[in-house]
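Quick start: read one record
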Amino acid sequence: MKKILFLMLCLCSLTASATCSKGVVYCPRDWLGNLIDDHDCERDWMKNFLVGASMGYSDLQGSLRQQIAFGGLPDAYTSNIVRDYSDSGFIMGLLVGYQGIRDKWLMGVELNGDWNQIDTNHPYAFVDAPEVAGWNAMVRYERDLLAGLSARVGYFLAYNFMPYARLGAEVSRDQLETVFAPNPAVIPGRTTLDARIWVYRFLLGLGVEISTACRPLTVRVEYNYHSKGKTIETNGAIIDGVLNPVLNSNMQPTEQSASLALVWNFI
């Protein structure tokens, strides 16, 4: 990813003398060098393809809900445990898109692929409700690769400064892993529960895009909210011949992210 960002900067420097020296003439222009106050601009859409690379930071939050029911005890001894869950990490991604500009308005559609470093183990300990045993446990929610499709609408407040909004959807294959280890003097054995499913979510974003000295290259700063998707759930049991605890864990987290992107416009 760092190599891609570096190559984009090198490409900009190599083409700067031919592309960036034209500057702003006749009337204000957008970062593509196109007129935005001219009558022709009000009539015709100016369109282009684009590619980009991004880096940022993401925070995932949700409630971990767990249940322990004992096969050898009445239902009244069932334990329901709710814990706050939070994890964060760096994100990197690539994007491609197509956009049009008319009368200071920009409309476009983009496809992105991002990689998350969100996969930390979270150990904890608890005692079940009937106080049958103490438990050591571990949970990990992992979200690696995701793909998204979104629409973007922006408005030029100045020829080189454009706030924009984003709305779209994304999909990823998320994994929930939990480990349960009761006090071996009471319940011998331990178990690892694991589930991996496709999760679809909505995406809402706000950002600004700024032109650089090299006209085709722009810089974006963006915040995104990633909604809840399908609940991911694990189930299992520890068969000890007496208490036989039946275990369940589930999560439905949200995610917030902030990123910085370099975008190359093909003009």
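The chain has two helices and eleven strands.
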